[in-house]
Amino acid sequence: MLVSLIGVNFYFFKKINIEFSRRMNVISGESGAGKSIILRAIKALIGEPPEYKPEGESFVEGVFYIKDFLRKKLLSKGYDFEEEDYLLINVNFSSGRIIYRINGRIIPRLVVKEIFSDVVEIHSQFDSVGLLNINRHYLILDKPFKNENFYISYLEKYTEYLKVSKTLNNLEINPEEIEKERDYIEYQIDEINKANINPERDNEIQIEYKKLQRIKQIQEILNENAFLINDDDVSVLSTIEKILNNLSRIIDVGYEKMYEKIKIVEEDMLSIYNEIQGEIENLSTDEEKLFEFEERINIIQNLKRKYGNSIEKILEYYAALIKKRERFNFLQNEKDDLEKKKTKLLIELKNLGSEISKRREKVSGEIEDKINEEFVELKMKGASLKFNITEQDEPKHYGTSRVNIMVKTNPGNDFRNIEKIASGGELSRILLSLESVLKDSLDVSTIIFDEIDSGVGQRLADTLGRKLFEISESVQSVVVTHLPQVAKRGDKHFIVKKIIKDHTTESVIYSLDGEEREKEIYEMAGKK
Fold first, then answer.
1. What are the extents of the domains in the chain?
2. Among 127, 231, 262, 344, whose Cα sits 20 to 30 Å from the Cα of 382?
3. Cα–Cα distance measured from residue 282 to residue 292, given in angstroms and rounded to the nearest whole number
4. Distance between CA 7 and CA 62 in Å, rounded?
5. What is the pTM for the complete model shown?
6. Is CATH 3.40.50.300 the right assignment for the domain spanning 1-119+444-528?
């Protein structure tokens, strides 16, 4: 509820100071006096400021009483005003840019607009009225049962359904591409598995293969070494034997240790000779084994070309393939699980959505009857309103059925969407009927009626005034009007006047009471 409005240097107003009634507030004045500027100031408070670049200080401030649903909206945006019952909204135009503050805290304009989107409703021929928004028509029907378990359960499951759908989309699994990739990975894993790589054994094969390849060279070298050690006339062993014979002749005069050392060398050389002989006897060209080794080495070389330049690199690549396969399997399993979950949620949403649709049908019938009675009172005989409830294939945040308010203004006409009603007078009366019937079920705390009496004749003036007063018993109303029958119903009456002084124009607004008010209403009726 809007408690007060203050403004400084806002358009033609040097000062604005209004304290509103919690019920019906009336604003009157001559055309062009500045009534629309007051509406601009209120719209600025709720996040819809005009493009205004003043010279010097300029601001508007409004105080709103906090209702529970407004407090919840603030909390949902991260603003905690738990211990406060009022919001002071300041909109400053002085700095060349528009700055919003709530209770002294700077807040983005779009946040303010979103917070007040369901709090203040402005009915104006120049503004988009909330009740005309087809995307919000379902809220009218859902109000009586929106706190029931099945409705809350639908919203919870729909949130879960969105998360599951988003996760599925982010998986980016293309079944055909995944199958191709999986087949290729399996082929690579199978190829490496068949090779049965054993790093230690494969390294031994490399050495043995090289030995088989160089068997002749090895034989020649070993034979030559054997000849040098023992078979030549001047072999190592024959030379050592001569050294030992020489030393034996002087061993008794202190050369025993030298003799023993040479004897050890002789034994070592003989051992080496025997080892060489054994190696020569074992050496043979095994063509079958050579072929077997070549095949094995070719297999390893082929794997090296594909997967790494060493056995260790091949095994690293193999480990990565296993992980990749496991990842694909996990993704596929996750996708299957998510698709099952999505299908289950879809069934549950359709069942709950069906219950919501049934309740909407019931509520719509009750509201339609009441609104059509209002039409008769407002002299719209033959006019009719209905809620068109259409089932949809896919669940949405509002359920599985779409709600659209349809109206026909004359017998024989087709029903049309409410926002397509051309006549301003007819639309005003339709909206008034809706507000009158829905006044106790709306979250709106303040409704601004900007010349809703436009196009309404004198015959309906009393009825119009009574309806506006009835609405104000449940919802605070601010009514800009030219009709005395409407003005006299207000709890408070404000007048806007234009003053021309010293070649300057200024607008003022002040409250009327007593005789002043009676005089204004009298003049609004065209009497002097």
1. 1-119+444-528, 175-329
2. 127
3. 19
4. 9
5. 0.61
6. yes
